[in-house]
Amino acid sequence: MRGGRKAIVAEFKEKPYEKYFGDELARLTNVTFSPDQRDEFLLGIDEAFLLPPPFLMGRLPHMRRRRWARLHRFPLSELDHIGDELSRRLPPFKFNLFVQY
Hints:
Elements: H1 14-28, E1 32-33, H2 37-43, E2 47-49, H3 53-59, H4 80-89, E3 97-99
Antiparallel strand pairs: 1-2, 2-3
C-alpha cells in the first residue's frame, strides 16, 4: 500500500470461470478466439465465439435491444484508428459473442 491507498484484491479467481465456460461453449462451435494478455488489454475480452443463433437467443436474455448511445462532438474519422487497431489484432472471423470474465 502506497500513499494511503488500499490495495485492490480480487474476490474470485477468473481462471476457473474462463476454463469451464470456455470449454462448454467450445463444445458448441469450432470457431473460437482467445487473445493473449497484451491483446486482451486492448480488446477487453478473454474469448470470442461464433455460436448458432438459436443458442444465443434462447440462453442470453440480457442482450441489448436499444440503439447504442450516440457519441457527441466526435466525428467518426477520429475513431477510425481504434477500429483499425482492433482489426489488426482479431483473426479474420466473424464472432457473435465476446466474453470478459
